[in-house]
Specification:
Main location: membrane
Order of helices and strands: HEHEHEHEEHHEHEHEHEEHHHHH
CATH superfamily of the largest domain: Periplasmic binding protein-like II
GO molecular function, one term: carnitine transmembrane transporter activity
Protein name: Glycine betaine/carnitine transport binding protein GbuC
CATH architecture of the largest domain: 3-Layer(aba) Sandwich
Strand order of the largest sheet: 3-10-4
Number of domains: 2
CATH class of the largest domain: Alpha Beta
Shape: globular
Strand content: 15-25%
CATH topology of the largest domain: D-Maltodextrin-Binding Protein, domain 2
Subcellular location: Cell membrane
Largest sheet: 3 strands, antiparallel
Keywords: Cell membrane, Membrane, Transport
Oligomer: single chain
Number of strands: 10
């Protein structure tokens, strides 16, 4: 009987010892979680979808932010869409973020429609002008001269402005400018960024007249000698900023991605350097990768506070 009591006592001590070890392990695990949480925001949901329009600016910036997010552990999918679909996807939550919102002027119609379902993280690029652009050898300097057919600019261009995709905010603004300046004889030809650039390149090589809907930053502004036509009635407004927008709930679902997107800011020279590399034939993913590798301090700034 005495032996049985002794065995029970030893068993109780053993159980208490094991429980103490387990509780200590749990406490250390909880402390580890607490400590790691203090180191920075965690990934959360790792799958991130970013829609973009295939304009030179957005092609470059979307691939760069994709590379930055993937370097910290996210799985990023880029989806090429038109402007309207880009806003719809982020607003309805089928996509997570976009770095292609031209505000407050160019995309105002989309912003007014969807702003209640979007989170504006502010500009990644500041003061990005857009408007009607011509090669420097074209003899007109103002949109008003288009109506006057100064220097036979109408005949020289077949009375056509070469534009980008029809859903773009800049196309809407160009249509408004045509009404405001009374360009009744003119047409706006919708194409794409790539097709517009091809037409511009052909015209410059032949030194022909051409008017395009262009913006800065853009690789073409570095590669060619171009000028914006003056807009005395300010239909195109002051220069936009290029904003980053996210869906509601991203901060809770993927806090580290939200922080990186919020801290994503660079200058025109950075963006143009990526665009030029892509224009020269570098694959966009490779161009983005090389940019991140060459700009470590900028990458650290974007990912500050992220574990």
């Amino acid at each position: 009987m005495k032996s049985l009591r002794m065995n029970n006592r030893l068993l109780s001590i053993t159980i208490l010892f094991v429980l103490a070890i387990m509780l200590s392990a749990c406490g250390n695990a909880e402390k580890g979680l607490s400590d790691s949480s203090s180191e920075g925001d965690h990934l959360g949901k790792k799958e991130i979808t970013i829609p973009f329009v295939s304009w030179a600016t957005e092609l470059a910036s979307s691939h760069v932010i994709k590379e930055a997010l993937e370097k910290v552990g996210y799985d990023v999918t880029l989806k090429e869409v038109n402007t309207g679909a880009m806003y719809i996807a982020v607003a309805d939550g089928s996509a997570d973020a976009m770095v292609s919102a031209w505000l407050p002027y160019t995309d105002v119609s989309y912003w007014e429609k969807f702003e209640g379902d979007l989170v504006d993280l502010g500009p990644s690029i500041k003061e990005a002008p857009l408007g009607l652009v011509v090669p420097s050898y074209v003899e007109i300097d103002s949109i008003e001269e288009m109506k006057e057919n100064a220097h036979s600019i109408g005949e020289g261009t077949d009375w056509a402005i070469t534009g980008i995709d029809p859903g773009a905010g800049q196309m809407q603004m160009t249509e408004l400018a045509m009404k405001e300046y009374g360009l009744d004889n003119w047409t706006l030809k919708a194409t794409s960024d790539a097709m517009m650039m091809a037409a511009l390149d052909r015209a410059i090589k032949k030194k022909e007249d051409i008017i395009v809907t262009l913006w800065s930053p853009h690789w073409a502004m570095k590669e060619y000698d171009l000028k914006f036509l003056e807009d005395p009635r300010e239909v195109f407004g002051k220069p936009d900023d290029i904003h980053t927008l996210t869906r509601k709930g991203l901060e809770e679902d993927s806090p580290a991605a939200y922080k990186i997107l919020d801290q994503f800011e660079w200058d025109k020279e950075h963006l143009e350097s990526v665009m030029v590399e892509i224009f020269k034939g570098t694959d966009p993913e490779q161009a983005a990768k090389e940019f991140i590798e060459s700009n470590e301090e900028l990458f650290k700034k974007w990912t500050k506070g992220v574990k």
